């Protein structure tokens, strides 16, 4: 997937400025596709030059004008084409998994260092799971009637929650194994 596709989806959900897109990436889209502020602005300029998005200047009373982007017909056509194309499974590169396998060739001090690293890694995933659950409570309260867009967003979030739970279960297994050596 290209960043362009993630931006098009976000702009179809709600037009906005580059700053607003960056905030959306930090809050929700970043759960499955990350991008820096600079990347988003660079891609927006290219998409505007290609006719995929249009920008409207919006005055902000005493502050510099902002540009609010929306999807143009060529951008929607590009997204439709991408949505209908098959997706290839991603190849997984997992440095920590290689380190865990490599622990067989290290001494007890090295395994202790690896345990500390796995614990740190686990903490980051536990924090991510906490953020996902908080976002779910905030954005998808129990019993709320959700439209199609919200239902699909919630489905993606539930996938992220399931993934983080799986990673945490695996890391607990790794820690049990390493501590038992």
From TrEMBL:
Residues 7-80 form the Transcription regulator PadR N-terminal domain. Transmembrane segments: none annotated. Residues 92-178 form the Transcription regulator PadR C-terminal domain. It comes from the Bacteria. PANTHER family: TRANSCRIPTIONAL REGULATOR YQJI, TRANSCRIPTIONAL REGULATORY PROTEIN. This is PadR family transcriptional regulator. The lineage of its organism: Bacteria, Bacillati, Actinomycetota, Actinomycetes, Micromonosporales.
